[in-house]
Design goal:
By secondary structure, this protein is an alpha+beta fold. It contains 3 helices and 4 strands; from the N terminus they run βααβββα. The protein is globular and about 35 Å long. It starts with a strand and ends with a helix. The protein binds FE2/S2 (inorganic) cluster. The site of FE2/S2 (inorganic) cluster has 11 residues, from α1.
């Protein structure tokens, strides 16, 4: 199971975390991954100064993520993580 944790602390919230979560939910559904990936909200991950939104893909910390980055990030980081777990 892959865990994607998205910061919804006030800075990240204002920088678009809710839209990012919506987009991720849509991509997860489109790819039929809802039983292989968990999306979770998180309190402030103490990376507010980095700009954009902070998230973890498993133990990988990503900072400065923007809504526009999500399709590329999904393809380059999330799908490979899911494949790793599934073998
Ligand atoms: S609010 Fe997201 S890192 Fe602080």
């Amino acid at each position: 199971m892959v865990t994607v944790q998205i910061c919804v602390g006030s800075s990240c919230y204002l920088r678009g975390a809710p839209r990012i979560i919506d987009k991720l939910q849509e991509l997860v559904a489109d790819h039929g991954l809802s039983n292989r990936l968990i999306l979770k909200g998180s309190f402030c991950l103490e990376q507010c100064t980095k700009g954009g939104v902070t998230l973890f893909i498993n133990d990988d910390l990503l900072t400065g993520v923007r809504y526009e980055d999500i399709p590329e990030l999904f393809a380059s980081k999330i799908l490979p993580a899911v494949k790793d777990v599934s073998g």
